Amino acid sequence: MDYKLMLLLLYFGAVVWLSSAQHENIPYEDVKDICEKCVCLTAHDSDKRYHHLLSCTSKRFKHILARWPTEFGKNHDNVDIVATFSYNNIELLQQLPATDAQLTFSCRHCGIKDLQEPTFIDVPNIRRLDLSWNEITSEVLTPGVFRGPFQLTHYEHIELVDLDLSHNKLHTLDKKVFEHTPNLTKLNLSYNDLKVLNELTVLALTSVTGLQELDLSHTAIKSVSMSIFKSLVNLRILNLADNELTRVPDKLQLIGRSLISINLAQNPIERFTEDSFIGLKSLQNLNISYMPVLKTIGKGVFTRLETLRHLDCAYNAKLTEFDMGSLLYSSNLTDLDLSHCALTTILLFVNITDESKTNVTARPWTHLHTFKISGNPWYCSCSLIQTLEHIGAQQSNADTPPRCDTPYFLAGTIIPNLTSQEICNLKIPKKIVIEEEEPPKFLRKRYIVLTFITAAVVVSIGVMLGFAIAGIRRRLKRNDFGIEPIRYTSVRSSNLSAFSNGNTNSIVVKGNGAANDNV
Asked: How confident is the model at residue 397 (pLDDT cuts 50, 70, 90)?
């Protein structure tokens, strides 16, 4: 028995020696005068618990410290340390300096590509770790990174509760990556190119049974395995925003008793049905905004969400139908955002004008203090104004007041300035054609047609005149314009002509006068 114990002690000593040698061979930042380079603050609360802050942000460090500042003391029991090395050039994150304090460590935007294994062996009480906005890959993130101190036959766990690995280069997770972090309750994997939650990733996630917050937003996933919901029975907050989901994940009701918040924004879901949120008995926050193809939220969608308090359904450009009636079951609703959709009207499907109904005078949501409906093309009819008055929306404070889009004589009118009494008594002209934003005259159809006709007539007249002028010119040229042409002939040819005709008197003889007299 002693022999086996001795072997274990030798093995443990070898591990400790190798670990210390690994520390010594890798350079660290100089700790001397570190509080002059960085910010060091110390405070203590009423229970005499000390809180130390070390901020080495943007110091162009390439490494971290080999030990904590001497100003923090040597005894770290009952001590909190918050250390940040963000915005430095630390490509290799070395083993953190040893401490028994409860540690919060941040190294964001550091360009981390590698992690010295085990990175946190000397800080077993690390609680929060932020390694977001780095270049950590799946090959680097191994289970050994999170190993705690070695004790005889096994490695102990570390106390990590909050882990942020967002904005890295992870495409999958090792199935045992979280085996040394059983206390993990908050995990952020957003903005990693996962695309698919493969079997290894699912096994890694389901191993953390105490997880309460999971962020898988912006990971391009198309579905979520039912196994995750079977194992994470304590999950309270689930973020699935900006993925490729075409419907609400199946079997979401498996975490219906614990889930209080779900974000489905920016997913290509076209419609929600009565079964979309079935079994979510504790849900308080629901975000279904910025959905590019969402068109319909029909009857009964929200009837089972009795605990719902906050509903974000804004910036759904194609949403034309929204069932307000199913929200009547959510009596504790406090915030409702329907702004910037394509809604023209909303109805509660109750007879508001029937004074015998008890729910006519009572507001359906007595705790509602935020109701946003601006940015919709509202048709300000009698029923719409009555519904808004019944809800109490006329008194709600919004950043931008909603306005009427139609009918034409109410276009641009601020809806809270209208009352159902005046709108219901209005007689809307039936034969008036409503033209929203009439174009300038030269762009209207009738003016465009007249322009083409006028241009055609002018061109036709021009062509006809051209042909007429060309014909007249050819005719005049053929008749030489009615003038007899001048004919020229020589003197000789004239005399010969006269002689041949026997007319000698007309012959002209060239010479002097004497010769002529002799003849």
From this structure: low
User: Which domain does 284 fall in, by range?
Assistant: 192-341
Contact 83, 105 (CB under 8 A): yes
Based on the domain organization, do 49 and 125 belong to the same domain?
yes
The CATH number for 169's domain is 3.80.10.10
* Claim to verify: residue 409 and residue 443 sit in the same structural domain: yes
- The secondary structure of 147-187 as a DSSP string is ---EETTEEPP----EEE--SSB-S---TTTTTT-TT--EE
Number of domains in the chain: 3
The overall pTM is greater than 0.90: no
Residues 202 and 156 in one domain: no
Strand 126-130 to 102-106 pairing: parallel
Do 180 and 233 belong together in one domain? no
Four-point Cα dihedral 130, 132, 135, 137, nearest 10: 70
Q: Do residues 213 and 185 make contact, with C-beta atoms less than 8 angstroms apart? A: yes
Q: What is the mean predicted confidence (pLDDT) over 290-299?
A: 94
Residues 6+ apart with CB under 8 A from 206: 227, 228, 230, 231, 232
pLDDT surpassing 50 at residue 356: no
Round to whole Å and give the CA distance between 164 and 215: 9
